[in-house]
């Protein structure tokens, strides 16, 4: 009985062997396939192999016969090797995916190609000692948030923050947050939820790996009007490090060599208006926050906030506060 059942499975076993072991540089001829099926306790002859190849081709599998007649291989696949390498790189570099879950996901991606190419993916895996979240539930938080959006439901959760003991503790004494989830975005290797806070009447964002105990409520989402013209790409461009702040239309004066920096930050659509042979100015909308100040400071003297005056003065005060700390430290010596 077992042999009879295996004989019925021969076509599937043959497809598995072709998918796992062949590509343009690695083929299996009829003798190879007969031997492979024998390992599954399936008897086959050359006519069986030729017939199965035709069935697999009719089914839509790209089984190709080598031009020199040396054997068969799988041509096109759902994912080519460069695509799988891109996905592996994304998984292993994502801080919001734990090390354990990263290895599980990469293992599944490796099954989408043959054994030879899977070894290339395995050699490119460098997860240990990379910055990774310790919150194993973040992987499932994302699924819960998608479910809430699909079902048009509000969510409630507690929000966490890291303390000096490297523990993720509940923020604000375990206060329960209640918001309407509308979008998810990935910024600086972290996952963020973009949501509407009905109590505050504004759009807010939260790091998914710091969201604790997410539950769906029976209440329908609110804030749809706020998201009808919401541009997630524009939101990401103006928000530095995903730290919120009041929006401001600012003018930046930049040295010409910073054109690439500005385009990388604000997109190719931004207008770089020449001032002289060495400088240009640009009008952009930013969320004014310490992270914006830090970005400007990190670029250095080649960039200057020209207007509005209140933003320029706020940045000057930020610099004076920092400088005062270092001036005081020098005077103590």
Describe the structure.
The structure is a single chain. The chain is an alpha+beta fold. 43% of the residues lie in helices and 24% in strands. It is built from 13 helices and twelve strands. The chain has helices at residues 2-8, 10-21, 30-38, 46-59, 81-93, 99-110, 115-123, 138-150, 224-227, 232-238, 259-266, 290-299, 309-332, and strands spanning 63-65, 72-74, 153-162, 168-170, 176-187, 190-197, 202-207, 211-220, 247-255, 273-274, 279-287, 303-307. The strands form three sheets. Strands 3, 4, 5, 6, 7 and 8 form a six-stranded antiparallel β-sheet that branches. Strands 10-11-9-12 form a four-stranded antiparallel β-sheet, covered by helices on one side. Strand 5 (176-187) and strand 6 (190-197) form a beta hairpin. Helix 6 (99-110) runs antiparallel to helix 7 (115-123). The longest helix is centred in the last third of the chain and has 24 residues, at 309-332. The mean pLDDT is 84.
Would you spell out the secondary-structure blueprint of this structure?
Blueprint: H1 2-8, H2 10-21, H3 30-38, H4 46-59, E1 63-65, E2 72-74, H5 81-93, H6 99-110, H7 115-123, H8 138-150, E3 153-162, E4 168-170, E5 176-187, E6 190-197, E7 202-207, E8 211-220, H9 224-227, H10 232-238, E9 247-255, H11 259-266, E10 273-274, E11 279-287, H12 290-299, E12 303-307, H13 309-332
Antiparallel strand pairs: 1-2, 3-4, 3-5, 3-8, 5-6, 6-7, 9-11, 9-12, 10-11
């Amino acid at each position: 009985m077992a042999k009879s059942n295996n004989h019925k499975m021969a076509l599937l076993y043959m497809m598995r062997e072709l998918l796992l072991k062949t590509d343009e540089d690695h083929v299996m001829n009829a003798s190879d396939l007969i031997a492979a099926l024998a390992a599954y306790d399936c008897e086959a002859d050359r006519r069986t192999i030729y017939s199965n190849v035709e069935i697999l081709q009719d089914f839509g599998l790209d089984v190709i016969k080598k031009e020199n007649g040396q054997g068969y291989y799988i041509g096109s696949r759902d994912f080519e090797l460069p695509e799988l390498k891109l996905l592996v790189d994304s998984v292993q570099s994502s801080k919001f995916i734990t090390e354990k879950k990263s290895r599980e996901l990469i293992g599944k991606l490796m099954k989408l190609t043959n054994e030879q190419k899977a070894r290339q993916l395995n050699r490119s895996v460098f997860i240990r000692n990379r910055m990774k979240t310790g919150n194993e539930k973040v992987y499932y938080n994302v699924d819960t948030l998608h479910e809430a959006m699909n079902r048009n439901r509000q969510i409630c959760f507690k929000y966490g923050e890291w303390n000096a003991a490297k523990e993720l503790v509940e923020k604000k004494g375990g206060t329960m947050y209640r918001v309407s989830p509308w979008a998810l975005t990935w910024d600086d290797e972290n996952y963020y939820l973009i949501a509407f806070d009905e109590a505050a009447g504004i759009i807010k964002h939260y790091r998914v790996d710091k969201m604790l105990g997410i539950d769906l409520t029976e209440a329908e989402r609110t804030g749809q009007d706020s998201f009808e013209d919401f541009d997630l790409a524009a939101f990401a461009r103006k928000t530095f490090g995903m730290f919120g702040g009041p929006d401001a239309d600012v003018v930046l004066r930049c040295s010409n060599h910073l054109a690439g920096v500005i385009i990388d930050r604000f997109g190719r659509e931004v207008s770089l208006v020449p001032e002289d042979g060495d400088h240009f100015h640009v009008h952009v909308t930013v969320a004014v926050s310490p992270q914006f100040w830090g970005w400007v400071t990190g670029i250095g003297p080649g960039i200057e906030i020209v207007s509005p005056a209140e933003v320029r003065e706020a940045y000057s005060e930020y610099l004076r506060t920092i400088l005062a700390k270092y001036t005081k430290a020098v005077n103590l010596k």
